[in-house]
Give the backbone structure.
Amino acid sequence: MPMFQRFLSDRQGATAIEYGLIGSIIAVAIIGGFGAMSKELTNVFNTVTNALVTHGQ
């Protein structure tokens, strides 16, 4: 029984889980941001490519 009470009062595992959750939320936000930015970046590169092709002729 004392071991079970010690287990319930130990907060180190909870802290590690909280840090893991925070890290995963940040990772999801970064991945989502890259997904949104990739379309914009593709448009910029296409515009530059078209301008170079047009001016090169």
Observations:
- The mean pLDDT is 85.
- The longest helix spans residues 12-56.
